[in-house]
Amino acid sequence: MFKVFSSLRKEYLLLINDKVGLALMFLMPLLLVFIITIIQDSAYKMVNENQIPLLVVNHDAGKEGDKLVDLLKKSGLFKIDSQDAVAEKSLKSELLSRGKLIGLYIPKTFSSGLESNAADVSNILMDDLGLERDSVNTEKVSMPTLSFYNDPVLQENYSFSIMGIIQSYMSVIENSLMIDRMYSTMDLGGQSEELKRKMISNRVKINQIVASNNNSTAIPNSTQHNVPAWTIFAMFFMVVSLGSNIVKERINGSFLRLKTMPTTFMLVMFSKMAIYVLVAVVQVALTFSMGIWILPELGLPKLTIPTNLFAFACVILISSMAAVSYALMIGAYARTEQQANGFGAISIIIFGAIGGILVPTFVMPGFMQFASNFSPLHWCLEGFYILFLKGGSWQELKNVFAFLGIFILLCQLATYFKLRMERII
């Protein structure tokens, strides 16, 4: 026991004397979780809660343009800034000068074009049914085209979403005009209101359900995504501290001196793993505590801990062992501290990028989604996502434990054979 205690004490002293490594391992995850969660939560609120600023220029000579603007206002989705005096050719510069991201131009022929199209549809329907209709020719006006302006910094999928919303309200106006026109053609004017109300009220409703394998009501939010993700990222960044410590001990001859002592070198490696696995667990405790108690005080969503606490502890433990094993391997193969720090840090960033830490894997192209399966950070994150967001069971976690177990074994074997080749073991 004295040998174990002495070995653990040595690793502890090395750890606390590495001020830069401690800062990277403890301060970095707290700052990452704090900053990224605030940024992403603001983005979620902009899309889900806040009204979208919309600059509207309505030059319509009829009343349908006003109806469209009124529908957009009543939707509660948009904060309308009406600037009907602005010329169409000046709308681009007006949009940018006012700091708006999107603008909508309604042309002068908007109402007349919709009415002409409704008349054509009504006439076709009457002819197909063999019913008599008024043969008075009306002036043909081409279908109007709305102009949607957006700031070039706005993401394309966001622009398409807004255009889809506007198109849905356009459909309400178009359908209303067609019904009015058909009733008028059949000399049933004024009797179309009941049908229009019925069509609007009897739309198919969509019930949103979050897919989960238990009865948990936890809703995915910025905290549930970011706290586990950036905690994993920070856990693997211990390669900067642990990797450089191993290189220093190899260079200054500490490993050779340890061989002359009445102990096994495997005890030394075990002590390193034990101390740094404990460090990783403390990292998780700190960042998750922030998600539970500190972030809610700032108006951010609270982190909800999974109900399967044993599985939660197992995911933390195997993720910690994966991070420590990788750091040991980098330390064994690096020739200098600069190599260990440089390659270790860059490789973790690459693993994080392809593993879904920086960008979600579902938005990546197919070959990158395949490549993400070779990132240990991806499987660590997947383990937390299964627990936090999917109410996961052991059955779902089996792939996570299988890949991380293989990864840990390969890193340990690579470390062993490298030290064996150098006759340190």
Automatic annotation (TrEMBL):
Ranges that cross the membrane: 20-39, 227-247, 267-295, 307-330, 342-363, 400-419
Subcellular location: Cell membrane
Record membrane topology: Multi-pass membrane protein
Keywords per UniProt: Cell membrane, Membrane, Transmembrane, Transmembrane helix
Pfam families: ABC2_membrane_3
UniProt cross-references to InterPro entries, sorted A to Z: ABC-2_transporter_component (IPR051449), ABC2_TM (IPR013525)
Coiled coil: none
Every ABC-2 type transporter transmembrane domain range: 20-415
Entry keyword annotation includes Membrane: yes
Span of the signal peptide: none
Source domain of life: Bacteria
Main subcellular location: membrane
Annotated protein name in UniProt: ABC transporter permease
Source organism per UniProt: Dyadobacter chenhuakuii
